[in-house]
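Sequence in, structure out. Go.
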Amino acid sequence: MGLEPDFLIWQSHEYQQTILAIGLNLGVALGWIALRTSLQRARLAE
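Output:
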């Protein structure tokens, strides 16, 4: 009938949250690298 058991709904939700957490951490890491690179280039330009 197209109805999913409750555990599949929660399992899907957990997967989504895990992917979001990985994405946020990756974004923070890449942002930190970009900031550090930008600061190094600014120092070299001086």
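Check: DSSP finds one helix and no strands in the chain. The helical segments are 6-45.
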